[in-house]
C-alpha cells in the first residue's frame, strides 16, 4: 500500500488595505511625498489563498509610495499639503548671511570723471 498525502497546506494571514474617510493627501514622514491617506487595514486568515476569517481591522495612515503605515492615533495626524515652502512643517530658513559683505570700489557701469567733462564746461 503506497499512501501519499500531499495536499498542500497553505494558510496564513493577509492584510487588505482599503481607503477610508478623508482622502486628502498628507505629507509622508518617511518619503516626504503627499501620498498619505487614511485607510482601513483588515487582516484575514486565509487558506489556500482564499481569505476566510476576518481577524482584525484597524484604522491606519498609509503611504502609497513607500508603504509607510501607522495606526491612527488621537492628537496626531500627518501634516496636510500646503502651498508654502516645505509645507510650513519645517522651521523657516534663516536669511543668507552673504548680504553682510561690504561693497568696495566704485559702482560698476559709471564712466569715471575725466577731461571730457571739463572741456564741455564753459564758465560765464
Ligand atoms: Zn511615504
Structural class: mainly beta
Give the termini distance in whole angstroms.
137 Å
Q: What is the gyration radius calculated from CA atoms?
A: 34 Å
Low-confidence stretches: none
Q: What is the overall number of helices?
A: 1
SSE pattern, N- to C-terminal: EEEEEH
Number of E-state strands: 5
Overall average pLDDT: 77
The largest sheet is:
5 strands, antiparallel
Strand content: 25-35%
**Approximate shape:** rod-shaped
Helix content: under 10%
Bound molecules: zinc ion
Note down, in words, how this protein is organized.
- The chain has 124 residues and is mainly beta.
- It has a domain at 8-72.
- It contains one helix and five strands; from the N terminus they run E-E-E-E-E-H.
- The chain has one helix at 115-120; strands at 11-19, 26-27, 34-47, 50-63, 69-71.
- Strands 1, 2, 3, 4 and 5 form a five-stranded antiparallel beta sheet that branches.
- The chain starts with 10 loop residues before the first strand and ends with a helix.
- It binds zinc ion.
- Residues 28, 30-31, 33, 35, 63, 65-66, 68 line the site of zinc ion.
- Zinc ion binds at residues 28, 30-31, 33, 35, 63, 65-66, 68.
- It comes from Agrocybe chaxingu.
- Residues 104-115 have a biased composition (Pro residues).
- Residues 27-73 form the Zinc-ribbon domain.
Amino acid at each position: 500500500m503506497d499512501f501519499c498525502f500531499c495536499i498542500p497546506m497553505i494558510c496564513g494571514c493577509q492584510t487588505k488595505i482599503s481607503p477610508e474617510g478623508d482622502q486628502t493627501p498628507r505629507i509622508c514622514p518617511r518619503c516626504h511625498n503627499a501620498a498619505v491617506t487614511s485607510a482601513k487595514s483588515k487582516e484575514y486568515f486565509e487558506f489556500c489563498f482564499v481569505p476566510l476569517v476576518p481577524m482584525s481591522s484597524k484604522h491606519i495612515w498609509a503611504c502609497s509610495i513607500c508603504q509607510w503605515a501607522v495606526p491612527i492615533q488621537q492628537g496626531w495626524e500627518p501634516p496636510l499639503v500646503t502651498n508654502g515652502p516645505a509645507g510650513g512643517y519645517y522651521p523657516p530658513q534663516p536669511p543668507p548671511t552673504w548680504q553682510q559683505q561690504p561693497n568696495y570700489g566704485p559702482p560698476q557701469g559709471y564712466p569715471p570723471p575725466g577731461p571730457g567733462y571739463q572741456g564741455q564746461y564753459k564758465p560765464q
